[in-house]
Amino acid sequence: MNDERIIELFFERSEQAITELDKKYGRVFHSVSYNILKDREDAEECVNDAYLGTWNAIPPAKPNPLLAFVCKIVRNVSLKRYEKNTAAKRNSNYDIAMDELEDCLASPNTVEKELSDRELTEIIGSFLNSLTAENRVIFLRRYWFSDTYADIAKQVGLTEKNVSVRLTRLRKDLRVYLIEREVLL
User: What does the angle CA 20 – CA 73 – CA 124 come to, to the nearest 5 degrees?
Assistant: First the structure.
């Protein structure tokens, strides 16, 4: 079933919308959540919570693309659960991935003082658009989907070492890009 029809089902308030959404994208949603939480039960609960969030958001929202809209909800729900689960400990792929980006981004307070979230989003989006398709996939799989180096390597057909080197270079390039735009000093 296509995304437009699934959205129509949401607008009709048909429970079939959730079923069709799960059939089409359920594996992606579970993967996003599991990569953050590393716990199948928590991931399942978060995906279900995200379905409820999607149900409440559509209507009035009419997302395009649907996959990105729901992935963002899944990711946000999973990150909230992650914060709750790991308030006193740091040990997951998500922590590791975010630690890698730490040198590229200023503290949230500094960024909030300097730029609005929208401006920062546009700058990072511009950076991503400047990358080759493969490097963009590598960057997003690591820092949006929290995939491991091994998973990324398998997906793009590179070695783990090559993925590691590319991510190091991409972080360095991002840092330079942000400095040039006076986001980082």
Answer: 125
- Provide the number of structural domains found in the chain: 2
pLDDT tens digits along 128-148? 999 999 999 999 999 888 888
The residue to which tokens 């091994």 are assigned? 150
Residues 125 and 153 occupy one common structural domain? yes
- Which amino acid makes up residue 24? K
Q: Which of 48, 15, 16, 18 is nearest to 30 (CA)?
A: 48
Residue 151 falls inside a structural domain? yes
Residues of the chain by 3-state class (helix, strand, coil), percent to 5? 75, 0, 25
Tokens read off for 143: 């820092």
Q: pTM of the full predicted structure?
A: 0.66
Catalogue the E-assigned strands of 71-178. none
Reading the block at residue 40, the tokens are 């199948």
Q: What is the tens place of the pLDDT at every residue in 160-181?
A: 999 999 999 999 999 999 888 8
Handedness of CA 132, 135, 137, 139 (dihedral sign): negative
